[in-house]
Amino acid sequence: MRRKNRDGKCSNPYKIGTISHIVLLCQVGKCKLMSTLIKHLSTQVTKVLIFDILPSVKILFLFIDGVGIREKAADNPVNPEVCPTLWRLITEHSKNIDSCLGVEGLPQSATGQATMFTGVNCPLAVGKHCEGFPSPALRNIIEENNLFLQLKKRGKRIRFADAYLVESPEDLSSRRFKSVTTVMALTAPETISTIDDLTSDTAVMQDITRETIQDRYPEIPVITPERAAEHLFGVALENDFTLYEFFQTDVSGHSLDYARACIVLRTYDKFLASLVRYTYTAGITLVATSDHGNVEAMSERGHTRNPVPFIAFGPKEAQIRERVNSLVDVTPALLAAFDTL
Fold this sequence. Notes:
By secondary structure, the chain is α/β, with parallel strands linked by helices. It contains 14 helices and nine strands.
């Protein structure tokens, strides 16, 4: 039960911020305004979204590439000064999970992500940790059975919220190199977000603010992290399961540039802070994890064998979190959340 303040009103551990949506919660067939949200809304309301909060389950899954857990150190920017919201989620709503998966060597992106999105121990299956883009063997594992396919079989509405700078999903299939998430999304092409979705604010760029595409698409305006969070929240309201992938943490980790890593983490933290407030209010379970460590050890160019955080915050947090001890458990735990109300 939530704590009540001196006025007898329920307190929110994450203060509700400004949002340009009125959310109506439909409970037991009756719509009612959620007072804790409306109280904190700005007067400039631009959109009304109606959705069922009971008995449906909604999950927003944030995949944060290259973030491990390590004690505080001079070269570790994952700390409360740089990213206070992420730090609070890690300390209060997270558990450490294994990304090494019983295989020697440093965990890598291709096998770690393939494991996360299939429930198969991919390093064990192919005999090693594989970096970069998935090999033919890994692609076969992903295409045969993955989180999106399983959710689709359950009749769930799914969206991969990262915008691809293409006109249609067909433009992606001809690419020689495809990431794990691209291979997975192509098994359910209706989940893919395109440049049209980005320009209509129903998708988010991989860098959050769109700054990295200004040289090619100057007509697409740069936005704040808070605005990007609002766009992602709108997508999450419309779907049962929404995935957003952020890999600038891993890129900055490889740079050995501590200041650059801090900029990346601060941007993400502003984005995350807004998402936490919005999902808390709307009854959406926020889940976040990583594929391997990296940015938490800026004096090391490569990945680390540190555990990674598994964050769950919202109505299903306890049920999801208790099922996960390694990357192998992520997909089964998410599916179980939809299978049990």
